[in-house]
Each structure stands twice: as structure tokens, then as C-alpha cells.
Design a protein that fits this description.
The structure is a homodimer of 164-residue chains. With 164 residues, chain A is α+β, with helices and mostly antiparallel strands. Chain A contains five helices and six strands. Chain A has a three-stranded antiparallel sheet with strand order 1-3-2. In chain A, strands 5-4-6 form a three-stranded mixed sheet. The longest helix of chain A has 14 residues. The structure holds a DNA duplex (25 and 25 nucleotides).
Chain lengths: 164, 164
DNA sequence: CTTTGTGCAAACCCTTTGCAAGCAG
DNA sequence: CTGCTTGCAAAGGGTTTGCACAAAG
């Protein structure tokens, strides 16, 4: 568990790297920069947490009521193609997206009672993963680690709503 | 990476514990033992690997052409309720089921090119997970670890077909 | 201008559900 | 007999796609 909060800013200021990579990708693929894309990405970055398409859609439509859900999906998929976002599916059916940080990967702890998600990072585990991959004769490209359990909160009484 | 092959048999012989628990569950819940359920569970156990509902359906219908896909889904969900099977979703939309082994949990390595899945187990990682959970103030109940990478097989050229 | 992007709605895909008929207990 | 189960088909819920119009380069 290291200092995971240092590099992240809630403002868009430190996200220049993201926009740079995105611009790069767009021009290389001869894709276009549009108002809608800009809004979706801005909000995605501003939130800076895992969101599903509909979450983001509801936020984005406040900025521009005419943006469609399909555009949000298309933009998120674009980011995924560009390697700038990761897609995961925690619960069934619905999947969530989050900014892909090449340097600073984080894993998740999900409370099986209230569904709360806490992010964490552990270098020892990451190192062991590399080792395991090597032993198996694979070249590791990425991973996903979700821990499930119960958080020790008084207000966490919503038992049974979420089964991994 | 320990001796994970020792306890598993491909025949149904060592699966008595499973049937016992299932029978228990059924009678306690006043549910019924039916021909269809028996066939679905038999094949599920015989395969002894992660399968999606349609996979299993295609196998099961060879034993009984009249079994419906819905029944397969219902049976798998029953096993999940009973705590005898785990459900995971590797790729989008489709989820896979596998026998829940309380004693012997395994994680997965998924080739991002050919989609091949290899199971592994690493006690050090598991131990660290406990530690992390404790540090976060959680009580660990389970986990899911998927490693993504490329396998070193000559016949693995199916690049781009699978993105985690 | 040419080509990509957008909105809308319909199409898709996996999974669940309603219903009448079928069986286990 | 009672009520859980099944098959079928239709409905659901999230995601994608076809199409005509809009807009970026």
C-alpha cells in the first residue's frame, strides 16, 4: 500500500498526458476531434474513478443534453482501443471503465454486502504475478485482482445484494 | 505453484462430496431432484472446467435432446445459490461457471491472443491478499485474480480477438 | 468536398421470466 | 395431490449497429 494519492489530481490539470496520447491516437488513426468526444472524455477524467456507461451518460448529458448514450459507449470504446481506458465487469452484465494508468495500476476490494469499492495497490503481489507468469511460460501484459469481503462499517447492512 | 492436480479426478468418482452437498441443499430447500438437473450437474462435473451456459447446453443436449437452455441456466444458478459453483465473466457479456472448491481455489491466466485459459495457484499471493485486506480494514471472503498476457505457442496467432 | 461522427431507434446477445403442462415427493 | 420444474417463447437489460444527417479536416 503505497502513496497512491500523490499523482492523482481531481482537476483536469495533470491529465495533459492523457489528452496528448489521445490526440496522438486520433491523428494517427485519422479520426476526428469532436465536441461530444471532448465532453465525454473531460467528464470521464474529471470523475477519475470507475464508471459505467450510463453513469457517465447521465453526467455528460448535463453538459450537453443532446449527447446520446451510443456516443458515450463509442467514446469509451475508443479510449479502450487507444489503450487509455480499461474495461472491467464487476457485476453481471454491466461493465465499468476507468482511466488506464500505465504507471500506477490499482486493484479493487469490493464489499460483498454494500458493494462499496476500495482501490489498493501492492507491489509485492504485482511482483509475484510476474513470477507466476514466467513460470507458466507466459508474457504478462496486465492483470485484474478483485478481493471480496466485508467492510467493517456500521452502515454496511445491505447484506445479500451482491454476490461476486 | 503447488501440486494442484492431485485432488482432482476427471471421473465422477471423487465428486461424491458435491452430490452430497447438493442433495443436502435440495432437501433443505424442499427442492426436487429431477432427471434434467442430474444430467446438467453430471456433465458440469465431468467437464470439470469453466464452461458457459451454452457450452454446457450443447453438451447436455447430446444426453437429452429435450433439455432447454433455460434449464441449464436455472441449474447453474441453483448450484451458485448452493455455493457449489462460482460464476465469473471473463469476456464481455458471457459468463462462465466452474465447480467451487472450498479447499482449492485457483486463479487464471488468460492469453490475450488466443483466449486460452490456464489455471494456477500461488500461496504467497493468497497470503498477501489476506494481509492487504487486513490493512484496509476488511474481512476477506474471496478473491479473483486474472492475469493477462501472451502464451508462447507457435499456434497462437489469433491476435486481436480478445481484449480483457 | 470527403470521410468520420452523431442521434435515434432498432438490432443483438446473453440471461431471465411467465405460463401451461409435467413430474417428484 | 401439491407445488416445484420444465420448455418454449417472449421479455429484459446492457451494448452495438444501420442509417441519414451533421460536422471535422
Amino acid at each position: 500500500m503505497s502513496d497512491k494519492s500523490k499523482a492523482q489530481s481531481t482537476t483536469g490539470a495533470t491529465n495533459k498526458w492523457f489528452w496528448d496520447l489521445l490526440d496522438d491516437y486520433l491523428s494517427k488513426q485519422a479520426l476526428k476531434q469532436t465536441r461530444q468526444r471532448k465532453i465525454v472524455v473531460e467528464e470521464f477524467l474529471r470523475l477519475d474513478r470507475h464508471v459505467d456507461a450510463e453513469d457517465l451518460f447521465n453526467i455528460v448529458r448535463k453538459k450537453d443534453a443532446k449527447i446520446g448514450l451510443a456516443t458515450v459507449y463509442r467514446t469509451l470504446n475508443l479510449l479502450k482501443e487507444a489503450g487509455l481506458a480499461d474495461q472491467k465487469s464487476f457485476r453481471d452484465g454491466r461493465s465499468v471503465f476507468e482511466v488506464h494508468r500505465p504507471d500506477q495500476h490499482h486493484d479493487h476490494f469490493i464489499c460483498v454486502d454494500c458493494g462499496k469499492v476500495v482501490e489498493f495497490e501492492n507491489e509485492e503481489i504485482e511482483a509475484l504475478q510476474e513470477k507466476v507468469a514466467e513460470q507458466l511460460g507466459f508474457k504478462l501484459a496486465g492483470h485484474r485482482l478483485d478481493l471480496y469481503g466485508r467492510c467493517v462499517r456500521r452502515d454496511c447492512e445491505v447484506a445479500g445484494n451482491y454476490r461476486p
